[in-house]
Amino acid sequence: MSILKRLSSSSNAEKFVALTFFQNLYLYNHVGTLYMQSRGLSLLQVNSIWSIIVLTVFLTEVPTGVIADRIGRKRSVVAALFLQFLGEFFYIFAPGYVAFVLIAILSGIGYSFLSGANEALIYDSLPAEYRETVMKQAMGRVGAAYQLAFFVAPLLGGLVISELVLSKYLVGIALTAASVFVAFLISLTLKEPPALYCHQVTGILQILKNGLAQVRRNRKIQRIAAVAILTGAFSNTLVSFYQPYFVQFGLTTSLPIGTALSLGGLAAFLVLSNILAIEHRMGRLGLFFFSFFPGVLYLLLAIVPNIPVLFPVFILTYAFADAKNPLISTYQNEQIESASRATTISLINTIGRMYVASVSLLLGWIANHSISAVWVVIGALIMFATLLLRVDRISIHLAEETLGTASEMMHSRKFHARHG
After folding, report:
1. Is residue 5 situated within a structural domain?
2. Tens digit of pLDDT per residue, the chain (420 long)?
3. Which of 291, 352, 279, 277 minimizes the C-alpha distance to 324?
4. Domain at 378, CATH number
5. Which position among 4, 320, 374, 395 has the lowest Cβ density within 10 Å, counted as fewest Cβ atoms?
6. Structurally, how many domains does the chain consist of?
């Protein structure tokens, strides 16, 4: 009862921290490919599942974003988590490739409902005073919860899935479904912020029109979106391909592979937990560093000579791959009007899906010949895009006032008393 009472009185941002942890506690993530192979899927079919999810998200991103702005962000989040739970439940019984494809479509729709609606709900739930700075903290904590789940899940999963056999896989998947259901229950306690957002009075076509207009007319939104998309670190590709890459170095058991992912999640948790402080210390180069550095790490990942070097390089690559996301989220939300926030974010994410889907197909083809070459391509893309888009100047023009505010707030006892 005390836990439920505390949860009920928590803010939306705090609830999203707990929700995100349970939503991403995938106990079978480090052996997911092996499970699908045990169900008769080839590696080509396994790789195509992610493409199907991306395609589904691409097709449903904008419609679900519009629905979120129409029916409310809370209901969209609840729907997303319910669909995710159904997907994990059906995953237990999937007999073959067609079933996995249908589950992938279901998962893609659920992800689309969550994309945009979660950020919009958190942002509009924060107090107007110091919102930009508090948003960075909130998204950093949500990102940290995500990475904490990735740290804990392989360790627990290694205990649950002690043998690489179907019966053990099913236990891990069942427990994962139960964890997602907990996240669904938490989502039911979220509260829509009516003072900042009233979806009842805005028509669907008007919401879509407003979102399109914001992206088309606002050059700042366009530039931030370009950075978010073109400097993307393909973290899903990293998680998918690191397993066979480790095997190439002679590993034959899942324990060290899961341990590497777990430690990577822990390192990412520490980075994201301190993202505001790190950016504050770096000043104008903060966003540039978090955009460019993952590219350097990918290049190092491609040339590691042995396992002792591979482990720390992989851990660092995973830790910094998505570290810039809370900063990008804040700069992006600063430029978007509340009434069509979820739609606008969904429009931007749709373009990102197109980029990821097209490049991922290329990366999959390259991986058939050399996984090391995949790391080189990703690293080169990240570094080239960061330099081409002059991300350091984006930090100067868009983040200067925010950083100044953050500097003042970091030294304000009142701020720490209210939001620390």
Report:
1. no
2. 555 566 666 788 888 888 999 999 999 888 787 788 789 887 677 777 877 887 887 778 677 767 766 777 788 889 999 999 999 999 999 989 999 999 999 988 888 888 767 777 887 777 766 666 677 778 788 878 887 887 888 888 878 887 778 898 899 999 999 999 999 999 998 887 764 444 444 444 555 566 677 777 777 777 888 888 888 888 878 887 887 788 788 776 667 778 888 888 888 888 887 887 887 787 778 888 888 999 999 999 999 999 999 999 999 999 999 888 888 877 777 777 666 666 677 677 767 777 877 787 788 788 878 889 999 999 999 999 999 988 877 654 444 444 343 333 333 333 333 333
3. 291
4. 1.20.1250.20
5. 4
6. 1
Compute CA 80 distance to the chain's CA centroid, rounded to the nearest angstrom.
14
Assessment of whether the complete model's pTM goes beyond 0.70: no
User: Could you tell me if 250 and 373 are in contact, meaning their C-beta atoms sit under 8 angstroms apart?
Assistant: no
Tokens of 418: 């209210």
Answer yes or no: is 3 within a domain: no
In a domain, 95, yes or no: yes
From 327, 302, 323, select the one nearest 314 (Cα to Cα): 302
Q: Are 68 and 111 in contact (CB under 8 A)?
A: no
Q: How far apart (Å, rounded) are the C-alpha atoms in residues 15 and 46?
A: 34
Rounded CA separation 208/202 (Å): 10
Q: Could you tell me which of 300, 322, 321 has the C-alpha nearest to residue 311?
A: 300
Q: Running DSSP on this structure, what letter comes out for residue 30?
A: G
Distance of CA 337 to the CA centre of its chain: 23
Alpha-carbon distances of 408 from 396, 402, 414, rounded to whole Å: 18, 10, 11
The SS3 of residue 251 is coil
Q: Are 32 and 153 in contact (CB under 8 A)?
A: no
CA 57 remoteness from chain centre: 14
State which residues form the domain around 302.
10-191+206-419
